[in-house]
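Hi P.,

Sorry for the delay on this. The queue was packed all week, but I finally got your sequence through. Input first:
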Amino acid sequence: MPNAFHYSIGRKLIQAVSGAFLVMFLLLHGTINFFSVIDSFTGKYGSVAADDKIFSAGDGLFKLGCDFMSTSFIDIMVPVLALGVIIHILYGIIITVKNIKARGGLKRYEAQSVAAADSWAAKNMFVLGIVILGILFFHLTHFWAKMQLPEMFGIGAFENNPYLLLNATFGKWWMLLLYIIWFVAIWFHLCHGFWSMFHTVGWDNQIWFKRIKVIGIIVATIIVCLFITTGVNAFLQANGIIG
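Then the structure:
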């Protein structure tokens, strides 16, 4: 029993650590995407220098951010991030299956802790994870496959203008709606997942529960607002409503 107990804690700890890493990446990724919104206000939206150099003086802020994402340091971090995503998914599945079995099947799969009983997201983390994962692969075909993949592995045609990718992706209303649904799913997943990370390390008393829950909602809202604002701005730019 002790070994099983510690093994269970170990799984949750790995899940928490990989989740924390992904939260930090989302904050970075969302911030760089939001640079395109700033470019709209400064008149630099779509500004890409004629050369193929990174960090060119004529580039808009968003293009400079994308250049940072193509540096050697980020190239090294991409496999690490991919591994983190895989670990997070696998351990999420393992933990979910173990919980279902421990509670007597799907009909009895009801959260018992203060955190789990607190929200709809807590009871649907696995479903939210599936939705997020499904659209993630769709998302990778729009950006990563046309920027990092050609640079790193020489596969496909490289697109040096990230603004064109933004416009092509978010220019259609139904595509924007699909992404917003994805962002909302991420928000629910993050709101519970953020608190759950600290619950794993024992910060689950009433005082810390309330504080961390609020912080988690704030962090999740900031991240999702960065992405949604980027998408809406690109839609307006692509359709000539602003710009």
